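User: Structure please.
Assistant: Input sequence and predicted structure:
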Amino acid sequence: MISPDIEEYNRSQTSEEVLICDALAKVIDANLKNALCKVWHRHPVWFLDGNPIVGYSKQKAGIHLMFWSGQSFEEPLLKASGSFKAAGITYDSIEKMDTSIIRKWLEKSEAIQWDYKNIVKRKGVLERLK
């Protein structure tokens, strides 16, 4: 179930961005059935066992969908993001979204996980969970 704080985040966007955010929240929530979702560091994020898996945020270019372990998915549409294992894609219109591809990435996000939950305890070292 999509949390009220995520619904509020989505409603705070422009009309096109609301469509993108709502579509992303719906497909993520439907496919990550055991995930907890909440606004974390001011952005919607889904967690499995306390580990961040996927989230999205507003950026200048559009709504950025990010998978914390996305670089390990070996998906050419996902571009590396940051200095760890994250990768994502940015959508500037609802027409550019392909939910069948997003569902495939969500399956991979459950199967391939790096342990971000304990990254501070391990002093910035990531270990593969799955």
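Strands lie at 36-40, 43-48, 51-59, 62-67, 79-80, 87-91.
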